[in-house]
Amino acid sequence: MQKNKFTGKRANQAIFFSLFRLMSYLVVGILFCIIGFIVIRGIGVINWEFLTSAPKDGMTKGGIFPAIIGTFYLVIGSMLVAFPIGVMSGIYMNEYATNKYVVRVIRVMTNNLGGIPSIVFGLFGMSLFVNKLHFGDSLLAGSFTLGLLALPLIIRVTEEALKAIPDTYRQGSLALGATKLTTIRRVILPAAFPNVMTGLILSIGRVSGETAPILFTAAAYFLPHLPTSVFDQVMALPYHLYVIATSGTDLEATRPMAYGTAIVLIAIVLIMNLLANIVRRRFSK
Amino acid sequence: MFNKKRNRFGETLVEWTLRLSGGTTTLVIVLISIFLFTEGWGLFKSSTVEKGYVLCVNRSNKIQNLTPKQVKEIFDGNITSWKQVGGDDIPIEPLRMDDIASQYTEEEIGANFEHLPQKLSEAIAAKPGALAFFPEQFININFLGRVLPAETITLKEYFGGKEWFPTATPAAQFGVLPLILGTLWVSIAAILIALPFGMAVAIYLAEIANNRVRKILKPLIELLAGIPSVVYGFFGLIVIVPLIRSIFHLPVGETALAGAIVLAIMALPTIITVAEDAMRTTPLAMKESSLALGATHWQTIYRVVIPYASSGIMAAIVLGIGRAIGETMAVLMVTGNAAVIPHTLTEPVRTIPATIAAELGESAMGSVQYQALFMLGAILFVLTLGISIWAEIIRKEPKVQ
Predict the structure, then answer these.
(1) How does pLDDT run across A177-193, given as a tens digit for each residue?
(2) E strand or H helix at B55, and its extent?
């Protein structure tokens, strides 16, 4: 009797554990299915011409070069906005702010900003940058909007990176007569560099895939020329995928282009994740 | 001496710059709320009738005003008598400008429509049951009808209205109820799908998997979070939508269910990460005591670890809902975007973010529709902000002993 109960308990555990294992593999399997499906269907379109030429014949032929360039510009622009502010904000929270209450308010606000949907950033960017500040539908407005979106991520990563640095570093530097600023510049920042870079790379991955914030601030369906100034509209990869997947006169004919664009988007995310891992590993030794 | 002074000045300057940066996120949140509400609030001051147009009735008509809903019902032919809207028992004759203009020859109206005001006026005076809708500019001094006072959209109509027809004429309908319900419907269904999987993976990663498996699975799941939502939407569009259509034998596969499945996949990483972190905080001593009392590992998990981590798990659910509510592109691509109150999961629905994304591009800046969409943004902002704060509070709650 006693033994039976014991085996029942064990059997129960075995059932549940294998169920959980199965479900976990299923979830990872889904991921592979999504990526695999798109890659298998679309790998045929990926070639040098696809990556380096402009769309032709109502998006059914040609490539996605202007969209790649547009996304590249948007990423650079948004990081120019978010990176300095984010890193400085992180430094302030971890190194300077002495009032615990202030730090808590900033942290809560940063978390909240991170939880705001990207479409709300789009609305805000449209009303502030496009209309109020008269940037128009432009690279500049899109960069600012995406920059604000990436800000919480960069702040959080910077703060984590600075927290991981042992206090003995700071004390050692200050004991040698260095000022606080020198300590931060010469000791803290170099030590935190790899983790901050990881955050930067991951936010590049995030920003390059965002569609909703640029819908009304920067993105154009088709442009015959590459943008020449920050006040020009740009084409962008995620928006390009959205429009060719959902609208157009001949959806069947544009499908291969859509698969190709999706592959490029996935590739960017994969590469950025890989890069972040490499940076983390190389410097953490 | 001088050098030191300059250095100190530099330090102060840097400190202030850093302090300002620290305030950026707070400033942005404040700015977002100010901008959304000021742009959106105009909605409740603007007329329900299309700008530049008026509604007129015969002078004998005692009716004082009509709600946008009544106007729409009248022009749709669903309300046919003035009695139904509180007037006399005479049939309503809705008149658009084209109806009147087509009754006269071009000469009668005049080459530049110079006689049109006169004709309009006569037409309304001749028909006691008339309800006419035409541009304001055609009303002249000796107008024989009566212009209905312009009504503004009320909060009650906006939040309680069951119809969303932002471009309908003569009176656009801005009832957000179907959109709010659609959003909640899809998000909650998504969480119900994602929760069993999320919990299973979280338990597996936190308690069962060995270190080697964990090191492979965790980055893969983080990768799942990094894939752009538009790619998920595209996948949903080409795989899940046709699948649902053939399984349920539906005319279209773009349904709430398709949205819920795509959102479930997208919410999984959030749920897994937060729940796993919560489970990992269970003190080893508690688990060891349970095991020492003869409980199996599984009994320890569901009697000790899960109760201990319950607040964290709740936070994971709440954060997952928050992410699902705000998701735009994927939902826009797979839910069919019909602004009706949903009854089953196999109907098309429309969510708040999808509505903004689909309509803002076509609405003129400052128009009533533009304002209504900003108001939707404000609702979404308040909703997600509330959810973030709620999750924060749940996480901080004292753990069950």
Answers:
(1) 888 888 998 999 999 98
(2) strand B53-57
CB contacts, 8 Å: B19 with chain A: 92, 96-97
Domain count across chain A: 1
- A248: helix, coil or strand? coil
Question: What pTM was computed for the model?
Answer: 0.88
Q: Hey, what amino acid is at B159?
A: F
B174 bridge partner residues? B164
A226: tokens are: 């590459």
Q: Do A128 and B326 touch (CB under 8 A)?
A: no
The residue assigned the tokens 């509604």 is: B55
pLDDT, mean of residues B29-39: 92
Q: Verify whether the Cβ–Cβ distance B234 to A258 is below 8 Å.
A: yes
Which residues from B are below 8 Å from A21, CB to CB? Answer: 204, 208-209
> pLDDT band at residue B6, thresholds of 50, 70 and 90?
low
| β-strands B93-96, B130-135 pairing | parallel
Residues A230, A138: Cα–Cα separation, whole Å: 6
Please report how many Cα atoms fall inside a 13 Å half-sphere around the Cα of residue A181, on the Cβ side.
13
Q: Where in chain B is the domain with CATH 3.40.190.10?
A: 53-151
**Beta carbons within 8 Å of B368's beta carbon, 6+ residues apart:** B43, B46, B47, B51, B153, B166, B172, B174
What is the end-to-end Cα distance of chain A in Å, rounded? 56
Chain A positions touching B329 (Cβ under 8 A) are 211-212, 238, 242
Rounded Cα gap, residues B281 and B283, in angstroms: 6
The answer on pLDDT for B381 being more than 80 is yes
Q: Is the dihedral of CA A278, A283, A284, A285 positive or negative?
A: positive
- Determine the topology of domain B53-151 in CATH: D-Maltodextrin-Binding Protein; domain 2 (3.40.190)
Rounded to the nearest angstrom, the minimum Cα separation between A67 and chain B is 15
Which of B234, B305, B331, B335 is the best residue to mutate to test the A interface, defined by the most A CB atoms within 10 Å of its own CB?
B234
Whether A90 is in a domain gets the answer: yes
* Residue B135 parent element (H or E): strand B130-135
Q: ipTM exceeding 0.95?
A: no
State the Cα–Cα distance between residues A21 and B271, nearest whole angstrom: 17
Average pLDDT, chain A: 88
Asked if A106's CB is within 8 angstroms of B298's CB, the reply is no
Supply B309's token pair: 């981590």
Whether A39 is in a domain gets the answer no
Answer whether CATH 3.10.450.50 is correct for domain B177-396.
Answer: no
- Distance, C-alpha A147 to centroid of its chain: 10
Mean pLDDT of B307-315: 90
CA-based nearest residue to A129, from A151, A147, A155: A147
Instruction: Please answer yes or no on whether A88 and B381 come within 8 Å at the CB atom.
Output: no
**CA B131/CA A183 separation, integer angstroms:** 78
Which CATH number covers residue A148?
1.10.3720.10
Q: What type of residue sits at position B182?
A: G
Residue among A20, A27, A91 whose CB faces B208 most closely: A20
Neighbours of B96 (CB within 10 A): 15
Q: B147 has which bridge partners?
A: B56
Per-residue pLDDT at B205 exceeds 80: yes
Partner-chain contact A24 B217, CB within 8 Å: yes
Nearest to B17 among A86, A88, A265 (CB): A88
Q: Is residue A25 domain-resident? A: no
Residue A176 lies in domain: 51-283
Between A131 and B56, whose confidence is greater?
A: A131
Over chain B, what is the mean pLDDT? 84
* Residue of A20, A133, A277 to mutate for B, most B C-beta atoms under 10 A: A20
